């Protein structure tokens, strides 16, 4: 298995949108670009909704069969660690090893010394393709990176070998994720993280750093777009260097987590990919669930009432629902409308607030982020929610497909 150049992670919280999501990849193919669909669901999402990894595999396989997709696709065990990898071994063929919790824990001194001995030759200015001034690397940068990341990568090695033992070498895709941390990883750190990955002999095909700026769930990028673009390009150059010099897989590429709805950086990402002839994995999930909610709001009176109920309950359970996502949301709580206000809204009012159109006067990033984490409320509604989504599957499916194809795939890979 070798992950294709462009791949798109889609999440389907309630297992009802796999077909609509795959239709977006079919549209892309018809527009001349091959994008590998990857259905991702994290342990966190499974726990909150009460689903099993096998359900993701079943829905993905069914959609692929029904639409006659004969190209590659994967099922991603997203953000897993040693404690829960076992649950995903059978259903998944893509594993995102989350090492965030181990960053900053220090490896054994002898390991750090060995790493420094081997890699200190890179101190100074490293010349990189298409990076004007190269990359300045101080000796202290190498040591700091080793102290901060070496143990975390050793942990990734343990998880990787657990999977390899069961699945066999080359039968699955490995991603390493570090996005849910407090501080971004700079390109210099990325270089030595990749060195450590090579030392652990992990054949990583994608790596998800925390980039500079905020990647809040379901809303646009917040930060300095120029700095992001500069670091993104430096990361692409660093990856190329690492592939050539450390012996990592040739198709190793960046993965952007919480990648949906980051419209203001898609332009710079697209031009950087072109400049470096690089691949990309972009991971999304909640953006599809928000299309379900938005679709319900416009579908019918009964469905609008469900959408409003989900808002009201999410607001009432704010702290509980936000806690698992604290690093990837930023909601101004005092700016959220009350449940009473929202209960008076028309279908158009509700849709305008939730639909991601920043030019729309009623668009509300706070509401969108709250609803993003509010899927637990829908899960607890059970049949009431699932039945409504099923009843209005045409309008919702259309929204889901258009959201992925028009708002994400087109600006990133086509336009
Ligand atoms: Zn992530």
Topology record:
Elements: E1 6-10, H1 18-30, E2 36-42, H2 43-49, H3 53-67, E3 74-80, E4 94-98, H4 109-119, E5 124-128, E6 131-137, H5 139-167, E7 173-177, H6 187-199, E8 206-208, H7 225-246, E9 253-256, H8 263-276, E10 280-283, H9 286-299, H10 301-316, H11 318-322, H12 339-343, H13 347-354, H14 365-373, H15 375-381, H16 383-391, H17 393-414
Helix pairs in contact: 1-3, 1-17, 4-5, 5-6, 6-7, 7-8, 8-17, 9-10, 9-13, 9-14, 9-17, 10-14
The structure holds zinc ion.
Residues 79, 177, 179-180, 208, 257 line the site of zinc ion.
Question: Can you characterise this structure?
Answer:
This protein is of the alpha/beta class. The protein has two domains: 6-286 and 406-413, Alpha-Beta Barrel (TIM Barrel), CATH 3.20.20.70; 287-398, no CATH class. Helices cover 53% and strands 13% of the residues. The protein contains 17 helices and ten strands. The strands form two sheets. It has an eight-stranded parallel beta barrel, surrounded by five helices. A two-stranded antiparallel sheet has the order 5-6. Helix 7 links the parallel strand 8 (206-208) and strand 9 (253-256). Helix 1 runs parallel beside helix 17 and helix 6 runs parallel beside helix 7. The radius of gyration is 21 Å and the shape is globular. Zinc ion (ZN) is lined by residues 79, 177, 179-180, 208, 257. Zinc ion is lined by residues 79, 177, 179-180, 208, 257.
């Amino acid at each position: 298995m070798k992950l294709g150049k462009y791949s798109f992670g889609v999440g389907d919280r309630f297992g009802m949108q796999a077909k609509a999501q795959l239709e977006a990849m079919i549209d892309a193919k018809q527009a001349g670009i091959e994008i590998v669909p990857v259905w991702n669901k994290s342990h966190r999402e499974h726990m909150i909704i009460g689903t099993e990894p096998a359900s993701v595999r079943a829905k993905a396989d069914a959609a692929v069969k029904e639409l006659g997709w004969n190209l590659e696709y994967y099922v991603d065990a997203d953000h897993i660690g040693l404690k829960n990898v076992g649950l995903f071994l059978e259903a998944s063929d893509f594993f995102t090893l989350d090492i965030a919790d181990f960053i900053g824990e220090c490896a054994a001194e002898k390991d750090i010394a060995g790493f420094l001995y081997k890699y200190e030759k890179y101190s100074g200015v490293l010349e990189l393709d298409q990076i004007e001034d190269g990359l300045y690397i101080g000796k202290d940068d190498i040591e700091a990176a080793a102290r901060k990341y070496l143990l975390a990568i050793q942990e990734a090695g343990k998880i990787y070998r657990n999977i390899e033992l069961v699945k066999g070498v080359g039968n699955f895709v490995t991603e390493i994720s570090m996005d849910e941390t407090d501080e971004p990883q700079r390109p210099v750190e990325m270089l030595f993280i990749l060195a450590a990955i090579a030392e652990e002999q992990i054949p990583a095909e994608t790596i998800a750093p925390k980039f500079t700026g905020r990647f809040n769930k379901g809303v646009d990028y917040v930060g300095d777009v120029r700095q992001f673009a500069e670091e993104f390009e430096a990361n692409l150059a660093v990856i190329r260097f690492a592939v050539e010099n450390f012996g990592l897989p040739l198709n190793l590429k960046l993965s952007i987590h919480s990648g949906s709805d980051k419209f203001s950086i898609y332009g710079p990402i697209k031009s950087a990919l072109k400049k470096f002839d690089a691949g990309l994995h972009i991971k999304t999930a909640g953006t599809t669930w928000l299309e379900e909610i938005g679709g319900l709001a416009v579908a019918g009176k009964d469905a609008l009432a469900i959408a409003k109920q989900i808002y009201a309950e999410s607001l009432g359970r704010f702290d509980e629902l936000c806690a698992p996502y604290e690093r990837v949301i930023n909601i101004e709580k005092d700016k959220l409308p009350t449940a009473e206000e929202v209960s008076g809204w028309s279908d158009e009012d509700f849709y305008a607030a939730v639909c991601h159109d920043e030019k729309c006067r009623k668009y509300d990033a706070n509401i969108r982020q709250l609803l993003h984490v509010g899927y637990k409320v829908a899960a607890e509604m059970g049949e009431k929610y699932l039945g409504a989504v099923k009843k209005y599957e045409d309008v919702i499916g259309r929204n889901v497909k258009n959201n992925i194809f028009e708002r994400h795939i087109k600006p990133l890979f086509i336009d």
